[in-house]
Amino acid sequence: MKRKAFLIDTTRCTACRSCQVACKQWNKLDAEATVNRGSYENPPDLTPLLYNQIHFIEQEQGDDLRWLFINRRCMHCADAGCVKVCPSAGALYHTKEGLVAYNREKCIECHYCVSGCPFDVPRYDAKQKVTKCHACSDRVQNGLLPACAKACPTQALSFGDRDQLIAEAKAAGKKLYGENDLGGLGVLYVLDDEPGTYRLPKNPAIPASIFFWKDVVKPLGILGFWGAVGVAALHYVTIGPKKLDDADDQPRKGGE
Amino acid sequence: MTNHWIDIRNSDVVLVMGSNAAENHPISFHYVLEAKEHGAKILSVDPRFTRTSARADIYAPLRSGTDIAFLGGMINYILNNDLYHKEYLQLHTNATFLVDPRFRMPGDLDGLFSGYNTAKRSYDKSTWDFQRDADGVPKSDPSLQDPNCVFQLLKKHFSRYTPEVVSGITGTPVKKLEEIYRTYGASGKPGKAATIMYAMGWTQHTVGTQNIRTMAIIQLLLGNIGVAGGGVNALRGESNVQGSTDHCLLFHILPGYLPTPKASLKDLTTYIKKTTPTTNDPQSANWWGNRGKYITSLLRAHFDTGLGAADEFGYQLLPKLDDGQNASWLMLFDKMIRDQVKGFFAWGQNPACSGSNANKVREALSRLDWMVAVNLFDNETASFWKGPGMDPAKIDTEVFFLPVAASFEKEGSITNSGRWAQWRYRAVKPLGDSRPDSEIMTELQYRVAKRYRDEGGAFPDPILKLSWNYGFRMPDGRLQELDIHAVAKEINGYFLTDKVVKGKAFRKGDLVPSFAYLQDDGSTSSGNWLYCQSYNGHGNNMARRSHKDPSGIGLYPEWAWCWPVNRRILYNRASVNADGVPWNSQRPVIWWTGSGWKGDVPDGGWKPLSQPGTRKSFIMLPDGVASIFGAKMKEGPFPEHYEPLESPIKNNPLSGTRTNPAMKLFYEGAEKLPEDVYYSNDKRYPFVATTYRVTEHWQTGVMSRNTPWLLEMQPQLFVEMSPELAADRAIGHGDMVKVSSGRGSVEAVAIVTRRFRPFKIEGATIHQVGLPWCFGWETKNAGDSANLLTPTAGDANTMIPETKAFMVNVEKLS
Amino acid sequence: MQLNRRGFLKFSGGAVAGSVLGIGLKAAEAEAQPLAIQYARETTTICPYCAVGCGLIVHSRGGEVINTEGDPDHPINRGTLCSKGASIYQLRHNDKRVTEPMYRAKGSNQWQKVSWDWALEQIAERIKTTRDATFMEKNSKGQVVNRTDAIASVGSAALDNEECYLLQKLLRSWGLVYIEHQARI
């Protein structure tokens, strides 16, 4: 099975947000009460009922203005912090297609994945189970496109074999974000500016301590003996300041 | 649309102006971006930087209500720089025609054309005519040099629209104007095509029709009508607004755009004689010459076929307007608020939010005796009696709410903007006890008719002789079940007697193959001649699903069905030269093989223009050519810039005629109503305002505010304004503000954004704001309709209200 | 036992963590998940929102809509949709849909549910009474006009073609001339 991925070409996005709704429709996610905060962007952040969202970013360039749109969601990292950190085997996992899916029955409600994610993606729902974009793994397994990618009218969102998406984008002279980060992201972006402008970390990384957890503590956990120590170490990692790249320091322009 | 959605991909330049396609017709952007990928330039002209502008190559701002100035400047640029397609003009337009030498234009008459009558606010059009030869055919000068020819008059008229003058009116920087003009004008080269995507941003003005005419003139100058990737394309906003217009749920037309009878058209013969256009030009097809066949076939579909020629096939059963009576939207509610309307149907519409000057509409509803509201959801119209400021105890209007099936809970066809009639099937039964609209109509037809049959009453004939044969009739006269296919077939039409037409023998009961077979002797029926061919001997053509595209330009001729006669691009005979050779060999629409046409269904099957026996290419017009000079318009044969009814400036920079001289003024005379007040150049309402839609909502929001996924994304009324205006009024981003006009006010969240910028108009700084009109008080915490602000003013030709340019004040709410 | 983050830390403190951590550390292979729309009935329709005319597939099972998505065979939208088109599932699964006729009496401050038969009969009665009282056979000039100006109708671009045709036919048979709809505004 070839690794699958999304390619999000921000230069084609019109922010129609069919991705947001198509996702909710397929995954049967209820709407939430929102208010207008002086922005088209709503809901304001990913929630247990919102697996992907469009950011609206205004940017002045001399006399001209740019209005940038970007779809934000789980990045389906190869080297996925959430999978690494998850103490419950099979709760968060890579599918055959290389996408990060989850089994809610196995989720033990620890929230560690939240801290293990450099993109602030996993959310916990009312039942305290993990939720996030799972790339419509049920659809993909059955040969269908994820609901969002199928709905996208302008091919801003495409889904397919990762190698092929990369090759085609490069052939078209497009610069990619996420090709090699974290073992290669499962969501690749074509951007029209620096990643920070799009609220993306320039060099996304899992906090170093997570490696310690994954590669040292977690295997030892088999022995049971180290378990509690491991969790304590993880506690430090997860409660400690999580440092994303300075994406959020970008000045947010009015009316975004 | 003269063309269709897929065809946008064939364009070399796409101008999105008077619409916001990326937001309101998102799927169209698939084709806009496909064109862009092939090298097309995308231009966005809008008072506000939109999601369309975000994907455009060039964005240019303009003040709301100044489109004619903007486009007039483009006409001037095209003519000054010889960018026009001369051969096209000579073959397909009236550019060569010679106009009456007495004709005068606004440059000479301070903003007016010759023949204006100030008291009547209308024109005597006698000088707006062509010089004609002894046979009555317009004289012409193919060299385009005669000073009285349309081309030279056009040049003279628009020479006043210099970039500097235009910029002073529109507020668009001169550099941007020239960039847009140069880019768009490049499509005048034979083989190049540019398209215009417009919508209510052009129609909802007191000069709406002329906005579109200005663009039509540009398209003709550049040879962009009839070709692939060209045309004049109205992006229609509701799923079946094209079909509802074709079937004429409008006061002035019957299905197929036949004029409604009026008092002076006392019988069918007079109707046909007076409403059928004539021509003396043997080369003009003058297709409307078939009027008699179409009205007769319509009457045959409407009324008992036992009525014969002596009964005028039932012509007298149709209601007649008084001559000059205007029963359009604004007049309807004006009459209602004056207590002259007793009963009212709001059938799938929410005028309490969609009507301009919504407070007037809401007040008018309270004057009714009874109202029937037919909808999926409760709404501000049905429940007006409990709306803001209403005291239910004092409102005597009885209201009946009838719940209906959703689109996928019934079967039938709808017609998209590209004129494709597409069939929909029933997926599930109507929800709960809701019913399909057609079933409700059938019930009302039966119950009203039964009362007239049993009790008698005023002129029962039209009710009792109406044909309603759409299924098995039970002993009590009720339809057991309405068969929607029977309706679709009646719209197409039948042969009512055995008949030989064009050498083909038809039997009584045969479906008519296409409108070319319709008759004026009563032997055929057709509920709407334009849809004749939609459901014929081949079956339900609207349900076709073939992907064949032999054209390669995306015509998909066997997908669904398109009026007229499945012609996918209108006026396509203008896509070829006099020998029938396409201007663009890469994207030909039709071409002459020497013995016939290939490609799309030709717009008139006659031989190419260079051959004997030909007919000219614009077959619906009596002169056979497209009208650059359009004498049918109320306010002049050429467009001229006039300010909106409510405008921020004191004078029209172009002339002493400030507003459209031919529009109806409501707030005038002894009978004026306070509801219709307006304030122009008034310090109390200093800011230009406009209304629009957003991707996430639809029209007044009844079908989107009630769908939680959509409301989640756009939960609340907002007003967008520039940081400069916000600073001036101490308004912060996200603050609640009050937006008020002379007629009402709304509370909205401030979105402070660079996407609006102050305009420099005649040296002064003018601010503009904008609000969506999709909200209403029935949705909790969402705010109310922006139409509470808009004025009672209408386009001079169509009476479409001016909701796109008016004046407001904005204040921060403490 | 509720295992929130805090609870878990406490829980692991009891050194029972091994039972949680001690099983397979490799990424789990997904079990094949059944597709919700498998064997569902598919009906094609056209989107009821704007006039682009996009095709949709409605999946239904047991007479109920279970999914809606773009029709991949439709030449205009090729399976794609905008946010409105993607939402039509909620036109069906929607507790705000009115499913029974309602009536608001003069001066009343509320709706009451009524039967179809009653509502239609009442409306027919109002139409006839108003029409008979206001019918104009001739205008002030003495010309035959056969109309009533006292009943008006607006709508609708949301109706099917066949319904638009039927509605104008019906309204005109009653003598209405104040017939307008969305196309005017």
Automatic annotation (TrEMBL), chain A:
- Cite the 4Fe-4S ferredoxin-type domain residue spans from the record: 4-34, 65-97, 98-127
Chief localization: other
Q: Name one Pfam family in it.
A: Fer4_11
Residues binding [4Fe-4S] cluster 3, per UniProt: 74, 77, 82, 117
Compartment(s) where it occurs, according to its Swiss-Prot or TrEMBL record: Cell envelope
The cofactor note reads:
Binds 4 [4Fe-4S] clusters per subunit.
| Matches recorded under InterPro entries | 4Fe4S_Fe-S-bd (IPR017896), 4Fe4S_Fe_S_CS (IPR017900), FDH_Electron_Transfer_Unit (IPR051555), Formate_DH_C_sf (IPR038384), Formate_DH_Fe-S_su (IPR014603), Formate_DH_TM (IPR015246)
Q: Name one GO biological process term.
A: cellular respiration
| Entry binding sites for [4Fe-4S] cluster 2 | 23, 133, 136, 148
Q: Please, which domain of life does this record's source organism belong to?
A: Bacteria
Which sites bind [4Fe-4S] cluster 4?
86, 107, 110, 113
- The name of this protein is 4Fe-4S ferredoxin
Give the species this sequence originates from: Geothermobacter hydrogeniphilus
